[in-house]
Amino acid sequence: MTQHVKKTEQVPVVQTTFLPLGDVGGRQDISEARSRGMQEGLACGFQAGSEQVLRAARIQIEEEQAVTESERIRLQTQTRQALAAKQTALPALAVKEARQALHLALHRDDEAYLHLFAQAAAHVGPVEHAVLRANAYGCDIASRHLEWMKKQIDGLQSIEIRQTDGDDGLCVLETEAGSLDASVETQFQKALQVAGWLDQIVAGD
Asked: Which of 30, 71, 74, 149 is deepest in the core (most CB within 10 A)?
């Protein structure tokens, strides 16, 4: 009869060193060291995190400042351009308003057109015959005030009214000495020239 002998495996023994039960101070030192280490780690982490946040904040502020400055410059440029455009358009706008005012004044009554004739007649010496060139509107007024017109020129015996293409303010007085243009548009152009706006209006057109 064969006997089986069990082999016993040798388990390595781990040597563990325990602090003596009475060595409480050593354990406190280790605990305090761990606490200090954790606190220092937390402090370093907090400082590093704070610096990172501050850097990110500074970058964002700088970017926002750059955008704000760029926007300020853009708005400033846009405002200057708008003002320049308005200043350029001012003469044209003023001329447009003036033309409308003259048109209304001319058509308010006959006196406005008769005043144009009187302006021309004031520069005419004694003559016996004259020709008035006007459009349909001016001819209609002149035909109703012929006698008054004759009295505006010394020695004038007759005045011929000739309908001519043009605006309602057309008023050209012709005599043997020459012609005088007292038309609204002619006087208006001279006024623009005196104001220094004539070139701007022509360039704007």
From this structure: 149
| Enclosing H/E stretch for 67 | helix 24-106
Q: Which amino acid is at 8?
A: T
Separation of CA 162 from chain center = 50
CA dist., res. 128 & res. 156, Å (int): 4
| DSSP string computed for 137-159 | HHHHHHHTSHHHHHTTSTT--EE
Domain parsing of the chain, residue ranges: 23-88, 107-204
145 and 113 Cβ atoms separated by less than 8 Å: no
Structure tokens at 3: 């006997």
CATH topology of domain 107-204: hypothetical protein PF0899 fold (3.30.2320)
pLDDT in tens, 55-84: 766 777 777 767 677 777 777 777 676 665
How far apart CA 153 and CA 169 sit, in angstroms, is: 21
At 32, is the secondary structure helix, strand, or coil?
A: helix
CA–CA gap between residue 41 and residue 21 (Å, rounded) = 31
